Structure formats: structure tokens, C-alpha cells
Amino acid sequence: MLPVAGLAKALRAIRRSIWVYHLNSGSCNACDIEVLDALTPYFDVERFGVKLVGSPRHADVIIFTGPVTRESLPKVVRALKAMPRPRLLLVLGSCGVGGGIWWDTYATTGGFSKLEEILKEHGVEVDRVVYVPGCPVRPEAIIYGMLVLLGLAEQKVREVELPAPGG
Amino acid sequence: MSLVKILEIALKTGRVTRRYPAEEPLLTPEFRGSIEVDPAKCWGCGACVKVCPPNALTLTPSGKGLVLEYFVGRCVFCGMCAEVCPAKAITVTKKFELASTNLRDLRSRVVHEVLRCSVCGAPIAAEAEVRAVVKASPISEEYAILCPKCRKERFSRSVGLRMGAPGGGSS
């Protein structure tokens, strides 16, 4: 992991020009369509300087979709290994974040938390991850997630624990 | 297409880009976002847990009590939990700005107190559920606060006494 000051410096450097690489790890294409939607003139992520590139070697941020199927796992690890530091990830959709409805099947790794362990075994460190739930994610949610990743927007969700009133 | 024609179309269409963070998002009335569980209404019956396709809702007994946990990161926003909830405790909100830097912040919990059997002390169900059942159906509270095993025992003993079986003591 990069030191916090180093990460903040890197984030400041890419703030107005973020090159993203879209990595599909076996998603159903709903999230991918929404990524495409976010790039169209209608939602226009390019307002924030976000530009889609064709190789993980050029990417500042990887937009990650899908539950990581067994077939795609080695390719995902290789793509993330090819990415330069700092590795910033925007994990999209309920599949990417928690495994979705495939969270406990044999054919998928089941979400990013389990992929992270596999990445650690391969010596691939991820510096910052932002999870964007949604099934599929709205283009607005992708934009919001990108702003959270860059530190331009505040995170709205918090862990809540409420007791049910007794008596 | 000539440049003039493109310009003509562009002028006629105008600006279509949404200024999203500065402007209201495009939410339709049918849109389903994350759910909210009202702890004052929830029984802890687990109907939502049974129906949840990706097991985003879980009901697990722990040291604190019966914990109903909602993990937004796995939710597919189908809204079936709100449909099936007998207490109408679950509402589907329009919240979609759920991005988070860690998975912990995506969890929300409702902790229920567990009712224990008045005879053997085994956990039965959430207290709120038993209260709701006593209110809704003609079952006496004396029976409702027993675990299934003790209830069966007491019932068969009382039936036996009525049929004239010997013994049974005071109960």
C-alpha cells in the first residue's frame, strides 16, 4: 500500500484527467451498458476528464464489473498486475461488490473481497477501492462513485446498527 | 452529412447533457433503490431473508441477539422483501448514491431481543415476533412463550389429564 500522502498526491495529479480502463470479469453486461451510458453525451463523464482507454497499462482507474468467473480470474489478475501504481479501482454492481446472486457458486470467485485475497497471494496491491452497489448501477451512481474515488464528493452511507425496541 | 446540416441538428437539439452532481438525478417513480428496515415495526420473522435472491438479508443469532443484517453490496434491488414483509417494516427508498470506500459501511443491522422458553430456556424467536403472534391469533401467552418441544409436552399432558390419565401434578 502506498503511504497516504503519496496517494493523495497521486489523486491530485490525476484529478482533472482520469484515464479509465473497463475490466469485465464475467458480468451480465448490464453494468457495462451503464458504463457506456455514463460515457455518452447524456451523462458525459468527460466533464470530469474521464476518458476510456484500451489498455490497463494506460489506466489511472480500472472500472471493474462482474463476479469474477473462474475462467476470467487469471486474466483479471494479469490485467491488474499490468496497471501502474497507484492502483485505483471502481468496483461496480452487486456482482462486483458482494458477488451478487452468484456469491456462493462454484463458478465464480464471489465478489471483490475474495478477489482481493487472491490478488494478495499474487503480490498485486490495490491502493484504493470504491464500491458502488446497484443492479445494474445507475450512470449517476457511477459518476458519484468516481467523485468519491477522487475525493470530490462525500461518502453518504454509514454502517448502522439499530436495536429493535423491546417491552 | 454536411457540416451545415450537423450544425442545424445540433442547434435544434440543444444541450442534452445532465449536470448530475449539480442537478436532480433522473429518477422515475418506479425506480427502486436501497431498502430501509424500520426497527420499530420489524418482527424479526425472517420472511424477507427467505425470499431474498442473493441473500443480502441475513438473520443470524449472535451474542447481542437476533441480528437482521442488510448488505447493500449484494442487494439486487428487486423489492421482494418489502412485498413479503408481514409487518410492512421494509420500505424501498430511492437512494442510489451508495458508493463507499469500504465494505463495512455497506452493512446495516437491526438487533432483536431473543425470547427464551420459560421452561427449558432454549431460544425460540425474536420477542417482537412472539408479541405480534399473540396479538394477532387466539393463542394464550402461556403457550406462546414456550419452545416447540415444551409446548408439545404441555399440550399432550393437558389433553391426557382431560382424558382421565393418572398423575400430571398441578400443571
Concise overview:
Chain A is of the alpha/beta class and 167 residues long. Chain A has helices spanning 4-14, 30-39, 73-82, 93-98, 112-121, 139-149, and strands at residues 18-24, 50-52, 61-65, 88-92, 128-132, 160-163.
Tell me about this structure:
The N and C termini of chain A lie far apart (49 Å). Chain A has helices spanning 4-14, 30-39, 73-82, 93-98, 112-121, 139-149; strands at residues 18-24, 50-52, 61-65, 88-92, 128-132, 160-163. Chain A is of the alpha/beta class and 167 residues long. In chain A, β3, α3 (73-82) and β4 (88-92) form a beta-alpha-beta unit. Chain A is globular. Chain B folds into 2 domains: 28-112, Alpha-Beta Plaits (2-Layer Sandwich); 114-163, no CATH class. Chain B is built from 6 helices and 7 strands. Chain B has helices at residues 3-13, 47-51, 80-84, 127-136, 141-144, 148-163; strands at 35-37, 57-61, 66-71, 90-92, 107-112, 114-116, 123-126. In chain B, the strands form 3 sheets. Chain B has a 3-stranded antiparallel sheet with strand order 2-3-5, with no helix packed on it. Chain B has a two-stranded antiparallel sheet with strand order 1-4. In chain B, strands 6-7 form a two-stranded antiparallel sheet. In chain B, β6 (114-116) and β7 form a beta hairpin. The mean pLDDT of chain B is 87. The chains are: A alpha/beta (167), B alpha+beta (171). At the A-B interface, α4, β5, α6 and β6 of A face β5 of B.
Write the layout of secondary structure elements.
The complex is a heterodimer of chains A (167) and B (171).
Chain A: H1 4-14, E1 18-24, H2 30-39, E2 50-52, E3 61-65, H3 73-82, E4 88-92, H4 93-98, H5 112-121, E5 128-132, H6 139-149, E6 160-163
Parallel strand pairs in A: 1-2, 1-3, 3-4, 4-5
Chain B: H1 3-13, E1 35-37, H2 47-51, E2 57-61, E3 66-71, H3 80-84, E4 90-92, E5 107-112, E6 114-116, E7 123-126, H4 127-136, H5 141-144, H6 148-163
